[in-house]
Amino acid sequence: MSEFLGGAEDGPDLDERLERSRQLADFAERVRKGDLDDAPDNVDAGWEVIRRLGIDVVVEMLMDRDGRAVPFGHRDNMNLHLIAYEMAQGFDRQGHAGARRLYEGFATVLNDFLDDQLAEARSAAYDLSALGEYVYRWWDRYRTLVMWLYKVLGHLDSGYVEKERLESLTTVALRKFHRKIYSAEMGEKVTRMLIDQLNLERDGGDVDGHFLTKCIELFVDMGAALNQKSIKSIRSLRATVDDLGEYERNFQRPFLAASAQYWRLQAQIWLDACDAPAFLRHAERAILEERSRARRYLHSSSEILLLDVVRRELLFRCGEAVLNDAGSGSRVLLARGDLTSLRRAYHLFREVEPCLALLARHVQEWVTEAGMSVLRRSGAESAAEKGDDGGFVRELLELHASHMELLHSTFEDDPALERSVKLAYTQVVNADAGSILAAEKSNDRGGAEEKSDAKAEEKSGGIGGGGRLAPYSGRTTKTSSGRVKNKGPKQSTNEVLVRYLDRVLRGLERGLGEAAVERSLENIMGIFTYLTDKDFFLEVHRNLLCKRLLGLRSGASATVAGSRRGISEEVERERAVIAAMKLHMGTSFTSKVEGMVNDYLIGQSLQAEYRECVAEEGPADGGDAGEIKTAAGDTGPAYDFEVQMLTTGFWPSQEQLEPRLPAHIARRLAHFEGWYAGKHNHRVLKWIHALGEVEVKAFFPPRGSKGPPRTYTMTMSPFQALVLQHFDADPGQTFAVSALRDALGLDDHVVSRVLHGLCCRPKTRLLKKTGAANAVALGDEVCVNLGFSSKQVRFRVLQPALQRAAAQKVVKADRSHAIDATLVRTMKARKLLAHNELVQECLRQLTHFSPEARAIKLRIESLIERDYLERDPDDSKKYRYVP
User: Where is the Cullin family profile domain (predicted)?
Assistant: First the structure.
C-alpha cells in the first residue's frame, strides 16, 4: 500500500498521471520564479494545489475508491515539497500564514480521513473477531498517510512548530488516532479479540501471528504518543518504560488476568486426568510455549509477568498436590529412580520456593530412610554374624556417592537440596543403629517372633557381640517390662568410619585400585563433614595414624614414580586426608596430625644423617660393619638400628616403660643420644619402647632328620624380642614367667600381655608354656616350641595392647579446654552477657563437636570458681568478665 512513497515512475493511466505531473511542475515553476509572492490568495492557491494534486490522490489510493488513481513519481514529490516549503516561508519571506495553513490543513486532512474510516466501519456489519482486522487496516492506512504527509510537510517541525512551541506533526497524528479510533472503537473489544486469538493458539489453533504482533504493538505506540511531546516520525517511534501506561492498562492487565484463568482451568484438567510425570511434562511444555509466545507477540516487559502467572497457576497452586501424590509424587519418583521426571520437577520448582522446600523435604526423608536402612541391615548382619565391619561403611559410601551424583546431575547442586542431603546424612551418620534396631524389635508383635529374636541374639552373643566392630551401641536385650536396654561397649558409626579409613590407607581393602582408593578417600571425607563429634574422629584417627607411620619401613620414603620430593605414596595419601579435614575444619583442627606427618618425614632425613655418622666412624674391633665403636671385645650382634623422632604434643601419649636392655642395645641408644645432643641443644630425649618394632630372624630345626633348618622372619614388639633373646644361648632351657618378669624389669600385667602373643596365639605360638592355654600366670614355665611351623615365611607376632585406648578420655579433656577457651574469649570481648546468650555464642563457635548445654553450664561454674567470670550483682542470670 505504500509503494507510492518510493515514487514509482510507471503505472496505469499514464496520461492522467502525466497531466497531474505537468500541473504540479507548472505551479512549482511559478513558485520558484516568485510569481505568487505578491498574489493576495497565494496561500490558499498553494494549499489547494497540495490538497488536490497530492493529498486527495493519496487518500483515494488508500481508501481504494478511485481505481484510476496513480502513484507519484520522484519529481512529483519534489515539486510538492517545494510548494509546501515556499508556502511555509510565506512566499515573500514574511509572516507565518502559509505555515499556519499547512499545520492546520494537516490536522484537517487527518480528521477527515479518520471520519471516513469510522463511517466505513459503522456501515459494515462485523463481529468481534473481525474488529481487530478493521483496526489493523485502519492503522496501516493511517500510518501510510502520515508518513507520506511527513515527507511533504516534515520541514514544519524544524521551523514553524519549533518556533511556536507546538506539537510535532507525528505527535498530532498519533494523538488524533488515539482519540478517534483507539479510545472510541478499540478498548475492551480489541483486547478481548486478542485474548481470544491467543487462547486459540494455546489450544492448537492457527492464527495470524503478524496481525497479532501489529495489533499489540499499537497499544505501545499509543502510549508513546500520549507521553512523548515531540515525536519526529512514526519510523523513529521508540517506546520507553514510561510510555507503557496504555499498554499495561488496556492490554497487559486484562491479558494476564485471562491467562491466569485459562491456566487455572487447564491445570485442574491435568490434575484430574494425569499422574505427576505427565503433569510435569504438560507444565514444562506450557511454560516453554508461553515464553516463546511472549517473545513473538508481547512487549519485552510482559515476558516475566506472563511466566509468573503461568508458574503461579500451574506450580504454586498445584505443586504441593503434584509432589505429594501418593502414586506418582516425588517420593515415588525418588524410590523408582525416575531421574528425567525428577530433573523436570526441579527445573520447574526451583523458582517456586514453597514447592522447592517441599521437594527438599522429600529428598531429605528419602535419603534419611535409605541411610537408616543401611544401619538396620548392618546391625542385623552383625547380629547374625554375616557381615564385616567394612561392609557397612562400603555400603554407606556407595549410597552417599549415588546421592551426590543425583544432587549434581539432577538437581544441579542446588543449595536447598544440598542442605537437605546434608541434614539427612548428619542424622544418619550420628545415629545409634543399635537403638534403632532395638526400637524396631520392641515394636514387633507375636510371641514367636520375639522368641526367634531372643534365640538369634543369644546364639550370636547379642547384636555386635563377641568383640566385633559394629556401627551401633553394643548388645540389645529385652526386659520383662518390654523395655530394651543396650549392653556392652559402645561402637559408634564415627569410630567405624575412621577404622575403615585406616584399612583403606593401609591397603587392606581388597579390590581397590589406585583410582578406587582415591574415590574412597574422597567419599570418606564427604561423610566426615556430617559428623557432629569430629574431635573424636580426629583423636581415633591420630592413634591409628601413629601406628601407620611407625609401621612404615624406612624404604617406604624412597621416591615413587610420579610423587614429589621423594614422599612415599602412603604419606601422600595421609597428607591428602589431612588437607581435606583442614579444608572443612581449619588449620588448628589438624595441627597435631600435620605435626605427626612432618615428624615422620624429618625422622627419615635424621636417620640418613645418623647412618652417615656411623659409617664414618667405622666398625668396632672384631665387629661387623653395622656396629659402632665401643669397648673392645664387647660389640654385641650387628643389626640395623633406626630411630623415629616424635614431638611431644603431636603424638598420642604413651606409658613410659623402661625394660632392662642388653648392653649392646643400651650402648647404641647412648651413642644416638650423644650424637643428637651435639646437633640439637636443650632437647630432652625419652625412649618409648612400646611403639618400637623389631624384625627377628629365627632358625628352627628341620622337621625330619635331614634337611635345612626352617627359617622365619618375624616382626614383633621390642618386649617380645627381649623375651626371645633369653633363649639364644640355649633354646632348650625353660624359664619361669616370674623369672622373665624380673629379668625384664616390667610389671606383671605387661609381662603377661607380652607372653600372650608368643604362647597363646595358635598361629604364632613360638613358646610353649605350662598352665592354662589362653592365660599367662606367674607360676607358669615357658620354653621354645621347637615344633613350631608356619606356612608363611614372613609374618607378624601380635601383642595385646599394653594400655587401653584413651580416646574418649582425651576427647573429654580437650572438649573441656575448648569450652573454657571459647567462654573466656567471648566474655573478654563482650564483658557482660546473659546466660542464654553466652551458651548460644559458645555453641555457634564450637564447630568440631556439639556440647550439651549442661556441659557448658558446668564449665561456666568452673570458670567462676577460678575467678575468670563472676555473676552480675544486679542480675544473677548475667556474667561479667573478670580482668
Answer: 492-759
In what helix (H) or strand (E) does residue 197 lie, and over which residues does it extend? helix 187-202
Residue 187 has what pLDDT? 63
Which pTM was predicted? 0.70
pLDDT tens, position by position, 800-840: 877 665 667 788 888 888 888 989 998 888 888 898 888 88
In what side-by-side order are the strands of the sheet with 878-881? Answer: 832-834, 878-881, 869-871
The three-state secondary structure class of 2 is coil
Map residue 655 onto helix, strand or coil: coil
Task: Count CB atoms within 10 A of the CB of residue 709.
Answer: 9
- Which parts of 831-852 fold into alpha helices (H)? 835-845
Report the C-alpha gap between 121 and 136 in whole angstroms.
12
Beta-ladder partners of 782: 735, 769
Rounded Cα–Cα distance for residues 573 and 585 (Å): 18
212: cell is 497479532
Q: What is the pLDDT of residue 237?
A: 65
In this prediction, residue 258 has a pLDDT band, given cuts at 50, 70 and 90, of: very high
Cα–Cα distances in angstroms (integers) from residue 501 to residues 137, 249, 518, 588, in the given order:
79, 67, 11, 21
pLDDT in tens, 380-436: 555 444 445 567 888 888 999 999 999 999 999 999 999 999 999 999 988 865 555
Coil vs helix vs strand at 531:
coil
Backbone angles phi, psi at 760, to 5 degrees: -110, -20
CB atoms within 10 A of CB 159: 14
For the residues 123-130, what does the mean pLDDT come to? 55
CATH of 693-796, one of 3.40.50.1700, 2.40.30.20, 3.30.230.130, 1.10.150.130: 3.30.230.130
Residue 510's CB is within 10 A of a number of other CB atoms, namely 6
> Which residue in 811, 816, 813, 809 sits closest to 536, CA to CA?
811
How many C-beta atoms lie closer than 10 Å to residue 836's C-beta?
Answer: 10
Pairing of strands 710-716, 869-871: unpaired
| Amino acid 13: pLDDT | 60
> 469: helix, coil or strand?
coil
Residue 431 CB neighbour total at 10 angstroms? 18
At 570-593, the pLDDT tens digits run: 888 889 999 999 988 888 888 999
Pairing of strands 694-700, 710-716: antiparallel
Domain residue ranges in the chain: 1-95, 112-243, 247-344, 352-532, 693-796, 807-881
End-to-end C-alpha distance for the chain, whole angstroms: 94
Average model confidence (pLDDT) across the chain: 79
Given CATH 3.50.50.60, say whether it is the number of domain 247-344: no
pLDDT at 471: 32
Report helix, strand or coil for 491.
Answer: strand
Sign of CA dihedral 367, 370, 376, 377: negative
**What number of residues does the chain have?**
883
Fold match between 247-344 and 807-881?
no
What CATH class is the domain 807-881? mainly alpha
The DSSP symbol for 682 reads T
Q: How far is CA 793 from CA 21, 277, 555, 710, 727, in A?
A: 121, 64, 20, 9, 21
